[in-house]
C-alpha cells in the first residue's frame, strides 16, 4: 500500500499508448447521444447544463428588472398595473435568487470541483442528475406562472398573512411555495454531494490543508446549503398546509403567528446571501494569485475567514427584522453579530490586496471584473455595516437605500466575480479565448451602468422613497434620480448583452487557447480543453497547493497515464476514495453509470408539484408513491448489483472497492443528508417552542391530547429495532452475516409496528388541525415521525431482499451501515419529539 | 487541565467548527433565553439593567467566554509544538477559538448597557 | 414652500442643463421632500442623519483608500523581497486592514449608535406622554386618540399630534403587516396583526409631514400614505374636543338640505363606514370629519371642492384594487349629493 506500488510502471497495464487509454476510458465514461443524452450523469455535462439554464433564467430575471425600471423611470406611470408590477418584482427577486444565483454557482462548483481536486466525477453522479432535473422542472413551473399572469405577487419573501389564502386567494403563492421547494431539492442534493466529494474524493496526497481555496469555499457553501435551506423548506410546507388545508400556523386568530414565517424565512434568507457570496469570493481567491503570479498570502487566514463567515451568517437573520418590534437588547445582539461579519470580509479583502502587493499583477480581462467586484463589493459591505446599526436601519429599512445596498452586495459580490470566473475558465469550457475588445466594452458598460443605477438609488432611498411601490407621485424630489437610475439600468443591460454576446461568439470565433493559458496553478488546467468526460487519464499524487506551478510537466504525465487508476478494462467508473484529513488513499470508489431513474423520479415529483397546484390531491398521492418507487429502484442498482460492481477484483496492490468496505462515501452522504434533516427537525422544534412561548393567542389544552403510553411503547419498539440493526452491523464489521436476512425482516416488522402505534396515537388524539395552531403543529411532528419510521422500515425490508439476491452480505457489507444511520437518527428524533410534544406540556402545563 | 487538553486532539480539523458552533449555541441560548424570560417574567422597566434576566444572560456569557478562552490557549500551545499539517490545523483552530471568544465578548456587551425586555 | 422650491428646481433643469440640475437636485430637492430622511424635524431623526453623514464620510475614505491601494499594486515597480519580509508585510496588511480597521470601526459605531436608538424607545417618563393608536388596514390608516378628554376620538387617514413633546405611537395591523413611518420624525415600526408595537416620536414644531406604509402590504402598498400634522398643544386639544361623538353627531344630522344624501349613505355606505350619530361600520375608514381632512384615499389626492364626488365615481381608477366596491350602479346625482354632504363634515 505504498504510494509507489500504485503508480503505474511501464511494465504494467499502461504499456498502452495515451490514445488507447483515452478510448478505453471514453468507452466507459463517454456521453451517449440522442435521447440517451437525458440519462447523462457526468458532472462536466451537468455542470454546463446548470450554468446554461441558469443564464436563461438570468435573462428572464433581467427582463423583469427592466420592466420594473421602465415603470419607475417617471412618476405616475401606468405602464404596468399594480397587480402586474407586484408579480414582476416578486418574480424578479425569486428568479434571480433561486433560479439564477444559487444554481449558477452550484453549476460552476459541480463542473469545477472534481477537476480541481483531481477526481473524475462527483461522488453521487445520479444525484447531480436528479438535482438538475428538479431545478429545470421547478424553474419551468415557477416561470410558467408569469405566462399565466398568475405569478406570486406578495414579494420574494412571501410574508404572511399577505401570502396566505385570505389575502392572496389566487394560485400565485402556491406556485412560489411548491416551485421553490422543488428547486430546493436540487440545491440540497448538490450541497450534499459537494461536501462528500470535497471531503472524500480528493486525489491521493491532497491533505485538507493543501486543497485549493476554491474547494474550501465550496465546502463552506455546501455545508451552509445543507443547514440553511431546511428552515425555508419547513416554512414553505407549513404555509402551503395553511393555504391548502387551513392549518393556522401563521394566523393569529388560530393561535399562530405571522412572525414565525419571518424567522423561518430569514433563518434561510440570511445565510443564503453568504451562500451566494462565498463561492464568488472563492473565484476571487482563485484568480488573484494566478494573475499576481504568486501564491495567495495567508492561506490559513482565508480558511479562518471562510469558517467565520459560514457560522456567523447564521446568527444574523434578525437584522432583516429590526422593525418587527423585538426587544432592544435582542436587536443589539444581532446588530453586534451583523457587524462582526465585517471582520472576515475585511480579512479577505486585505489578503487579496496583500497578494497583489507582493506579486506582479497583470490587468487581464478577468482581473478587470475582479476590480469591479472590489469597488462595488466594498461599497456594499460598508453600507451593510451601516444597516446593521439599529437606529439607522429603522430609518432606511424598506426604502430604496436597502435596494441599492442589496444589489451592491449581490451583483458586486456574486455577478462580477462570476463573470470574472467565466472569462477565466472559458478556455477550459471551449478551448478558445474570448475577445478582449468586446469583453472590455462589456465590462465598462456594465460597471458604469450598474453604479449609475444603484449608487443614485441610495440617495433616492434617503429621500424617503419606499421599496416595492409600483408608482410614486411627482414633487417628492425623486423624479430625476429615478430617471437616471432607469437610464443607467439600460446601459448596464447593454453591457451584459455584450458580455453574453462575447461568450456566445467565442465558441465559434475565439482564438484557439494554448494549454493553461493563464499559467494557473490548479489541477483543472491539466484537463483537455474542452475536458474529456473522465477528466484525467490517470490520477496524480498531489502534495502541494500549486501542482501545476511546482510540476509544469504534470498535465503531460497525467495524460500519458503515468499515474494511478489508468486502467479501464474492468468496465467500472473508478476514482480514489481518500482520507478526509490526510488525503491518504482508503478505497477505490466505483461510480454508477448513466441512468434514467433520476429523470423519471424528477418527472414524478413534477407531477406531484403540478397536482398539488391544481388541488388534485389523490393524483399527488399516487405520484409521491411512484416517485418513491423510482428512487428505491435507483438505490437497488448499488453494491454488487450487476449494473454496479458485480466483480470486486482490483489490481494487485490496490485498495478494495468501496462497496466491499464499511467506509464508502455513501456513509458520508447519509450523514450529511441527516444534518440537513436535523436542521429541518430543529427548525420544527423552534416553531413549536416559538409558537408556544411567543404567539399572541396560543391556546394549549389542559392535558396533552397525545397518549403518552402509546408513544413510549412506539419508542421502545423503535429502540428494539435499532438495537438489532446495530448488532447486525457489528457482525458485518467482523465478517459475519449469519441470519442477516431474517434479522432485516424482523427489524422491518418492528419498524412497521412502531409506525402503526404512532398512527394510532395520532388518530386517537382527535386533533382539530384547522382550529388551533397547537393541534396543527403536533400533526406535522407526528407526520414527520411516521414518514421517518415508514421509510426506515422499507429500507430495512429492501436490505433483507438484497441479502437474498446476494447483493449484500459479508462480501458487500456496506449498505446496512448506511441504513443503520437512518435508524439511529430516527430513534433520537422520535424520543425528542415524544419529550417535546407529549412530556413537556404535561410537566410545564399550558 | 493539560491532560484534558491532550484528550481533545486539538490538531484535529474538527476544531475548525467547534468554537463557532459553541458561539452559535451561546447566541441561540442567550437570544432564546432572553425571549422566553421576557415573555414569562418581564422585569419592571424602572429596574434598568439591574435585573435577574440581565444577570443570568451575563453569567451564561462569561461561562462561554471562559470555555472558549481556555480552548484558544490550548490550541495556541499545541500549535507551537507542532509542524506542518498539525501546526496548520492547530493555529487555524486557535484563531477561530479566539474569534469565537471575542465574538461572545462583543455580542454580549449590550447586556451591560441596555435594559432587557424593552 | 416645498412646492415653490420644487418648481424652482424644475426651471433650472430647463435652463441650465443636466449637470446643474443634478447639483440643484442634490442640494435642493434632495433635502426638501416631505418624506426626506435628510430633512429631519425631530431629534431622533436628526441624530440618525448625523450618524449617516459621519458614516458616509468614513466609508468614502475607506473605499477610496482600498481602491487606490489595489490600483496602485498594478502600477508599482517590482521589488524583490525575502520570504520573511513578505510574511511580515502580508501580516501587517491582514492584521491592520482585516482586523484592526473593522473592529475599531464597528466598536465606535456601536458605542455611538446604540444610545441613539434609546430615544425611540417608549421608556417610562415622569410625565407620561400622549398616546396615539394607529391601525393599518389594506390600504388606509385608522387613528385613535384614547387619551382625549371626554372619551376616545376615532378618525382615519389623518394624524394630528402635539408638537414639542414626545408622543407614543401604539401601532398594529388589522389584516396584513404594514409599517408606520414618518421619515422626518424618526424610524419606522411594523404594524403586525396580533401585536402592539410602540415607538416614540417628537416633532420640534408645528408642521406637516409625509408618512408612508413601509412594509409591502399588497396591490396598493404604494398608495397607502398619510399626512401627519404637528400642532401646538392647545390646538391639539381643541381639535380633539371638536371630534367628540356628540359634536360629530350633531354635525352629521343637523341640517335638512342633505337628507337625501344621508339616506343614500345609509343605503350604500353605512355598513362599512362610520359617521358618528348615523352608522358604526368599521370595514372602511371613519368619515365623521371627512370634510376637514387635507387629503382623500389615504393621502393620494388633495381635498378640494368636488374631490369626494370624483373619488366616489373613479376610485377604482385612482386606486385600483382598493376594497371599496365600484359605484357604477349608483346614479351620478346621488354620488354628487353624497360628495357634497360629506364635504360639509368639517367640525
Automatic annotation (TrEMBL), chain A:
Q: Identify the residues that the record assigns to the Heme-copper oxidase subunit III family profile domain, covering every copy.
A: 585-842
According to the UniProt entry, what is the EC number of this protein? Answer: 7.1.1.9
Membership in a protein family: Belongs to the heme-copper respiratory oxidase family.
The name under which this protein is listed is: cytochrome-c oxidase
- Which Gene Ontology molecular-function terms are recorded? cytochrome-c oxidase activity; heme binding; metal ion binding
Q: List the gene name.
A: ctaD
Fetch the SUPFAM superfamilies from UniProt: Cytochrome c oxidase subunit I-like, Cytochrome c oxidase subunit III-like
Pathway assignment reads: Energy metabolism; oxidative phosphorylation
Localization: Cell membrane
Q: Which residues cross the membrane?
A: 46-68, 88-111, 132-151, 175-201, 213-239, 273-292, 299-320, 332-356, 368-394, 406-426, 438-460, 480-505, 619-636, 667-686, 706-726, 738-764, 776-801, 822-844
Database matches in Gene3D superfamilies: 1.10.287.70, Cytochrome c oxidase-like, subunit I domain
Its membrane topology is listed as: Multi-pass membrane protein
Organism of this sequence:
Vreelandella boliviensis LC1
Enzyme class name: translocase
Q: List the keywords (alphabetical).
A: Cell membrane, Copper, Electron transport, Heme, Iron, Membrane, Metal-binding, Respiratory chain, Translocase, Transmembrane, Transmembrane helix, Transport
Principal location: membrane
As its record notes, the protein acts as a catalyst of: 4 Fe(II)-[cytochrome c] + O2 + 8 H(+)(in) = 4 Fe(III)-[cytochrome c] + 2 H2O + 4 H(+)(out)
NCBIfam families xref list: CtaD_CoxA (TIGR02891)
Q: Name one GO biological process term.
A: oxidative phosphorylation
Q: Which GO terms describe its cellular component?
A: plasma membrane
Q: Which InterPro entries does the entry link to? A: Cyt_c_oxase-like_su1_dom, Cyt_c_oxase-like_su1_sf, Cyt_C_Oxase_1, Cyt_c_Oxase_su1_BS, Cyt_c_oxidase-like_su3, Cyt_c_oxidase_su1_bac, Cyt_c_oxidase_su3-like_sf
Domain called Cytochrome oxidase subunit I profile: residue spans? 28-543
TrEMBL record, chain B:
Q: Where are the transmembrane segments?
A: 12-32, 52-73, 94-114
Recite the UniProt keywords alphabetically: Membrane, Transmembrane, Transmembrane helix
Say which domain of life the source belongs to.
Bacteria
Would the keyword Membrane be found if you checked this record's keyword annotation? yes
Q: What is this protein called?
A: Uncharacterized protein
Automatic annotation (TrEMBL), chain C:
Originating gene: coxB
Topology relative to the membrane:
Multi-pass membrane protein
Where does the Cytochrome c domain lie? 256-346
- This chain belongs to the protein called Cytochrome aa3 subunit 2
Residues folding into a coiled coil are none
The GO terms this record gives for MF are: copper ion binding; cytochrome-c oxidase activity; heme binding; oxidoreductase activity
Annotated GO biological processes are: ATP synthesis coupled electron transport
Q: What function is annotated for this protein?
A: Subunits I and II form the functional core of the enzyme complex. Electrons originating in cytochrome c are transferred via heme a and Cu(A) to the binuclear center formed by heme a3 and Cu(B).
